[in-house]
Structure formats: structure tokens, C-alpha cells
Amino acid sequence: MLLRNRKPEDAFGLQPSEHSSILLLIMWQKIKTYTIAHLLGLALVVGGWYLSIMNTSADRWQSVKFLSGANLVGLVMIIIGAYLPEIWISIKNRGKSS
């Protein structure tokens, strides 16, 4: 008689509504991690590109100089921005099972 009135539970002893809210929180955390990492990487790529282009256009009427300090900083920003999201996500997910 008691088994009929009992609510269904999963393997962890959670009710279906509790289980879905925990999954939504975990999924929201993953979405935030991926979004923040990729937006930061995009900002670095765009900032590095802008810095390099602006520096090159500012030196237009001077002698040809391809590797100035600002161009190198812009190049480093682009490279860091390209690889930062994947490094950030792998460090954040280190030790977690999928």
C-alpha cells in the first residue's frame, strides 16, 4: 500500500523536479564558462587586430616598418585570444568526468 503512494525517485534519491533543477544549474554553469571564455578570446582577437591595423595606418607615410612594438603586441593579443578559450575550458574542466 505504501509503495503506491510513494513518488518516483531516481538512482540518487532525488525527485524528478529536483533532478532537473540540478541539471539546469550544471548546464547553466557550463554555458557561462564557455561563453565568458570565448567572449574574452574574441575581445583579445579584435583588440589585437584593431591595434595592429591602427598602428600600420598611423605609420603610413613613414618608412616601411612591419614589426613595430604595437604590431607585436597586437600579434601576441591575437594569438592569446585564439588559444585562451580552449586552455581556460580545459583547466576549468580538469578533474571532472564527462
Automatic annotation (TrEMBL):
Q: What keywords tag this UniProt record?
A: Membrane, Transmembrane, Transmembrane helix
Q: Where are the transmembrane segments?
A: 33-52, 72-91
Keyword Membrane in annotation: yes
What is this protein called in UniProt? Uncharacterized protein
